TrEMBL record:
SUPFAM superfamilies: Periplasmic binding protein-like II. It comes from Streptomyces alboflavus. Residues 19-46, 196-215 are annotated as: Disordered. It is a lipid-anchor. It comes from the Bacteria. This is ABC transporter substrate-binding protein. One of its GO terms (cellular component) is ATP-binding cassette (ABC) transporter complex. The keyword Acetylation does not apply. It holds the Pfam family SBP_bac_5.
Amino acid sequence: MASATLVVLSVGAAACAGPDDKSAAGGGGKPQRGGTLTVLNSSPQSDFDPARLYTSGGGNVPSLVFRTLTTRNREDGAEGTKVVPDLAEGLGKPSKNATVWTYKIKKGVKFEDGTPVTTKDIKYGIERSFAAELSGGAPFLRDWLIGGATYQGPYKDKKGLDSVETPDDQTIVFRLNKPVGDFDYVATQTSFAPVPKAKDKGTKYEEHPVSTGPYKVVKNSGDGERLQLERNPHWSAETDAERKAYPDKIDVRSGLNSSVINQRLSASQGADAAAITTDTNLGPAELAKVSGDKKLAAQVGTGHFGYTNYLAFNPKVKPFDDPKVRQAIAYAVDRTSVINAAGGSSLAEPATTFLPNQESFGYTKFDHFPAGASGNAKKAKELLKEAGHKDGLTITLTHSNDKNFETSPEIATALQDALKKAGITVKLQGLEDNDYEDKVHDAKDEPGLFLAHWGADWPSGGPFLAPIFDGRQIVEDGYNFNSSFLNDKSVNQEIDEINQLTDHAAAAKRWGALDKKIGAKALNVPLFHPVYKRLYGKDVKNVVISDWTGVLDVSQVAVK
């Protein structure tokens, strides 16, 4: 799946003009402090509790309220895939085998009530994320912390989690049961946000979580459908170089139809002139209309996120147990028609690797089964003949009926037409989205061929390749993502060895090499990487879109 996501100044005097503008968006000129930013979204910001949010890089709206040990570098493009300190003074100090990580936090960070933040608050915030009643957050700490698998959270276990140590108020130590070279990236999750134990109200904490960021929650109604934020008087730019905090207020309005959101941003009337969206893309028809209007075209942000759409095989189902059949399908795919079905080249880029085409993931260019732009039916037929299907074959492709331009009927039909040229008859099985998700992730009921997608939890090869290809992550009872049921000892061993590396560039090279090795097995057919196109209001300035999240960073926006 991103987000991809740090002068002593009193709050009243904090940088009136702010730092130099990164973008001429919204009329140009330096961004100014003040005004109200409106966020128009389709999905409510539900479960606004740091324990329950599943974020990467600190999230978007959540990162305005919840600071974490580390966060994403708030810069455009590839620079934004770097992890940087947030509450911590620097990045973590790992042991030689990356099983122990130590952080020192900054002095002077306070909660919205003026209370100093200590590492004991961070430890308590992490422990809350283990409570069953606060489920929904990222699962990594449960899997990686010593004792995490059986710990039930502070409400049931008052003793706490021994593998998170706080020897003093500025130091926190994590003891892991396996090497995790990417731990700095994991520490961007909101489960690392400090929570004052005295203010914890359990499941009701989300109504007024205690802020450490530049804004505090003043109203949360409709389970995050309307979220109103105002300045946190105890936040200081001295301890936070990442968040710019230009607007005085943030008004998040959700539950809106996507077409309505884009209409309102296009019109930019009244408060909508200073509005953005953090979850609504332009569709193909909307993009065509916007592209024809120079004024509107200047109000479109373009982003890339670590995400791959692909055809998944289940080798347990015939004829996909035969590598030659899988290779034939890979050769037959017409990526041009698939990209057109996904909305065109402005919204999708062709993929021949499973890893996204970004350096931070370890992208290594290869194409084991070159189909060209429009498919290689001749080569596909040759392979089918070798596999004993000289007269072709008939297969079923499972897809979602949801109109998402990813796993939807448009993509399935494009593939059906392309494979027909190679003598492969494709029957389409469309399922309602919930039924589709349940079926394709059920190890016992998984179809032989289906449309799938995967996005990164952080911009590294590990969270991209391991869940899909590590045989030890096959889940027989529950949601399974290793759809090819690959359990190759050499692949598993390489994953373990790379996970010990704390040098991200060195690890990236090896993730790329592993992607190439696995790709030769034809366990899936990469189709395309999405491109995000999102409108923003005409008065919005300082548009920053990193390759970590692929979308406009709300913490950088100015409206004056």
